[in-house]
Amino acid sequence: MSRAFLVVLDSVGCGGAPDAARFGDDGANTLGHIHQTVGLRMPNLMRLGLAQAAGLSDIAGEGLFGVAREVSMGKDTPSGHWELAGVPVPWDWHYFPDTHPAFPPEITAEVAKFCGTDGVLGDCHASGTQIIERLGEEHMRTGKPICYTSADSVFQIAAHEESFGLERLQDICRHMAPMLHAMKVGRVISRPFLGQNAADFKRTSNRHDYAMEIPSPTLLDWAKADGRATYGVGKIGDIFSGRGVDENRKGFDDALMGHLSDLVDEAPDGALVFANFVEFDSLYGHRREPEGYATHLEWFDEAIGPVLEKLRKGDLMLFTADHGNDPTWHGTEHTREQVPVVAAGVGRKDIGQVMFVDVAASVADHLGLSERGPGRSFL
């Protein structure tokens, strides 16, 4: 029985979204601009067809390749992943204004009340790493949690794992999630960090996303309904609020590559493995570091080579992305882009331009699932 591995390279867009101007992103192109600025050497994914899919070269690939476009009115993680899993977002997300303060007073008052402090720090749009560097020492002195957001529909709370406490941080995020979800804020995210001062603060791998409940069954649910084993790698379990995921394996990207490799060895026939590699986005896209982004892409390509070689006959491994985050673009937010679709295990095929929901339909088709959702299979 066939297995399927759906691998999301978080934020690795390839430009060209027809509605990019609506989001202020007309001309953004994550892969294209990194290639122009730094250059990219990715022989494994290029051989499958990434270069042609992303418009980096006319050399045809040996695998399945094309690009996908999104219809959900967002350029965020839940919108992209939900739609890739067959469920476009049926509402408009709430976004906080880029002002100071950014949050309604009742939100920050509730955070402070729960934490027993006389206020919060931040209350603004910010880069997660930069705000920890700026406010982390004050947070450790005062115990006040650091609250911030971005151009995405998120409410993030950063706190020191030891001085504030990881469980306490997760408790406050869990407490705040219903209030924020009622406002159509997509995620409340706990952002723990360690270190003694601004020079050595580092976020840990114990991040947890408290996402809104997805409104209808996804590819993961379809697979479970047909009795298939389902695995999440990275933040998949958080994005889908645990729905449809038998087991989720987390860590930084190097650990996630190990988990994906192990699942190629271990996952039973008929299994669905859904993975997200986030550090393209979190470490390099938001920080606007094209050199670091290029280095991480090349690391991923080198590391995925041995994993591809272990695929069994009949396996599908499909690589795509959830949005863009062009590190040469203005600002620090995601960019509205189409995304590459590249796959091994189904022969050579140029699928041209498809939709995000077609990814779910195609994976379901490969697995022989009863449900295919609103998309069309391109296999």
From TrEMBL:
Enzyme Commission number: 5.4.2.7
Coiled-coil residue windows: none
Protein's pathway: Carbohydrate degradation; 2-deoxy-D-ribose 1-phosphate degradation; D-glyceraldehyde 3-phosphate and acetaldehyde from 2-deoxy-alpha-D-ribose 1-phosphate: step 1/2
Compartments reported by the entry: Cytoplasm
InterPro entries in UniProt: Alkaline_phosphatase_core_sf, DeoB, Metalloenzyme, Phosphopentomutase_DeoB_cap_sf
Keyword terms: Cytoplasm, Isomerase, Manganese, Metal-binding
Co-factor binding details: Binds 2 manganese ions.
Cofactor(s) needed by this chain: Mn(2+)
Catalytic activity: 2-deoxy-alpha-D-ribose 1-phosphate = 2-deoxy-D-ribose 5-phosphate; alpha-D-ribose 1-phosphate = D-ribose 5-phosphate
Binding of Mn(2+) 1, residues: 10, 322-323
Top-level class of the enzyme under EC nomenclature: isomerase
Major localization listed first in the record, in broad terms: cytoplasm
Gene3D superfamilies listed in its UniProt record: Alkaline Phosphatase, subunit A (3.40.720.10), Phosphopentomutase (3.30.70.1250)
Signal peptide segment: none
Superkingdom of the organism of origin: Bacteria
GO molecular function: magnesium ion binding; manganese ion binding; phosphopentomutase activity
HAMAP family for this protein: Phosphopentomut (MF_00740)
PANTHER family xref list: PHOSPHOPENTOMUTASE
Protein name: Phosphopentomutase
